[in-house]
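Hey forum,

I'm writing up a methods section and want to include a predicted complex as supplementary material. The small molecule is flavin-adenine dinucleotide. I've pasted the protein sequence and the SMILES. Can someone with a working setup run it? I'll credit the forum in the acknowledgements.
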Amino acid sequence: MIIRIPIKSKAVVNASGPWVDEVRGNDVAAKQQTKKHLVHTKGVHIVFKQEDFPLTQAVYFDTKDDGRMIFAIPRAGKTYVGTTDTFYGEDKSNPTAEAEDKAYLIDAINFMFPTLNADVSMIESSWAGIRPLIQSSGSKNASDISRKDEIWHSTSGLITIAGGKLTGYRHMAEEIVDDVADYLKKHFKMNVKKVSTIDEPVSGGDVGGSVGYQNYVENISRKAPSYGLTLEEGFHLAMKYGSNVETVYQYAGITNDNHEKYELPKLLYAEVIYGMLHEMVIKPSDFFVRRSGKLYFEINDVLNYRKGVEQLLQDTLSYDDNARQQYAEELDAAIQDTKR
Ligand SMILES: Cc1cc2nc3c(=O)[nH]c(=O)nc-3n(C[C@H](O)[C@H](O)[C@H](O)COP(=O)(O)OP(=O)(O)OC[C@H]3O[C@@H](n4cnc5c(N)ncnc54)[C@H](O)[C@@H]3O)c2cc1C
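Reply by user p_vandermeer:
Happy to help. Structure tokens for the complex are below, copy them as they are.
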């Protein structure tokens, strides 16, 4: 069901990543003025247990055949490797890691780590994503396409930011806000200040910079036992939530044994509550896939605790059994995709 809500605004920012062309397609003016478009490429990562791929430090290396750069990174008892970079024209909302993507990465691993004898049966989980790149003429290889970002204006007030890299997100955010300020000044004589976010910590980032991070994590995790968590659990949470971690500890401290009702460990229960109250978690897949990444790195938590999490979300957010069933099927499909 589509619900249309009229919104009055002088400008609208379109930062919809791989979908920016679709959003521009809904704007008659932008459609007429469009010269540049996106081109999409797919990137796949694969995940191994540490015992199968014992790596202690992140490395990057080039593949034998096409010389592309590949990363192998240890994380929370796993090692993940990626990525591929191939043109993609299929369903953007559901890209999957196909056999040939996995074979490409396995070949690259065996080239760099010949004694590992990696094969697809060792892959524990995988995921695929879509890169929103700006089309340029003459790029035959996906990896040759520029990762630069650009801003496109439509006379309707739709301002699109496209392309770019994750590492440039703060710069891109500042760029687009400044652009909107200029637009409002020029067209509506509004006096809107430009922004400076360079010294603003992101949510959870108030940890004394990269220099202070390790100390911060060690100090704060000492508080965990007073909330009924172990030191190790406190450390694990502090690494993940940074300076937001005390809020998560507090939710662990006030469960009133509610976690037992849902047969969830206290730590997981606190993370779900935090997700609902601070990270817009509504569905089980919001939590397991997009917020915690457990689907990729802690698949056993998903399999062991999904029923409890589904019940907790349903009870708290009061949705009906049909919605619960639909969300459960969505999670089933996501679990299947990691095993393809
Ligand atoms: C496999 C892979 C590996 C990568 N590795 C790196 C890397 O190592 N370093 C790096 O810097 N970058 C990397 N990138 C690139 C990086 O992820 C992207 O450049 C970045 O995510 C783009 O950010 P964005 O906000 O423009 O788009 P997105 O992160 O895609 O966000 C767009 C959002 O808009 C939402 N949306 C879409 N349509 C609508 C609509 N109609 N209404 C409301 N919301 C909508 C989407 O749901 C999404 O949440 C990688 C990308 C992939 C796929």
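Some notes you might quote in the supplement: Residues 169-188 form the longest helix (20 residues). Residues 31 and 51 are 53 Å apart (CA to CA).
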